[in-house]
């Protein structure tokens, strides 16, 4: 299990992430709206502009102020560290 910083000291279990998308498209806006209606949304933007929408395996939606590429690169570097520690 690895935790990834998604901005402003907020962390998420990287094993639970299904998809990360930008919030600009109509489908991602619908995902956010439906999550708000179901009350299963976590706003980790600290009042900043939402730059990524993260959907988790337990059907929660997490909003982050970091772009998906930044979070993905953090996940990649964390997996490299785990691989090095295993060897």
What does the secondary structure layout of this molecule look like, with pairings?
Layout: E1 3-7, E2 10-13, E3 17-21, H1 26-38, E4 41-44, E5 52-56, E6 61-64, H2 68-86
Parallel strand pairs: 4-6
Antiparallel strand pairs: 1-2, 3-5, 5-6
Written account of the structure:
The chain has 87 residues and is of the alpha+beta class. The protein has helices at residues 26-38, 68-86, and strands at residues 3-7, 10-13, 17-21, 41-44, 52-56, 61-64. The strands form two sheets. The protein has a four-stranded mixed beta sheet, covered by helices on one side. A two-stranded antiparallel sheet has the order 1-2. The protein starts with a strand and ends with a helix.
List keywords for this structure.
single chain, 87 residues, alpha+beta, four-stranded mixed beta sheet, two-stranded antiparallel sheet, 2 helices, 6 strands, 37% helix, elongated
How would you concisely characterize the structure shown here?
The chain has helices at 26-38, 68-86; strands spanning 3-7, 10-13, 17-21, 41-44, 52-56, 61-64. The protein is an alpha+beta fold.
């Amino acid at each position: 299990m690895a935790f990834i910083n998604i901005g402003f000291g907020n962390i998420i279990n990287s094993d639970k992430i299904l998809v990360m998308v930008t919030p600009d498209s109509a489908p991602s806006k619908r995902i956010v709206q439906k999550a708000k209606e179901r009350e299963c949304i976590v706003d980790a933007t600290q009042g900043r502009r939402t730059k990524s929408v993260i959907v988790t395996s337990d059907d929660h939606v997490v909003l982050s102020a970091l772009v998906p590429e930044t979070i993905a690169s953090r996940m990649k570097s964390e997996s490299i560290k785990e691989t090095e520690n295993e060897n």
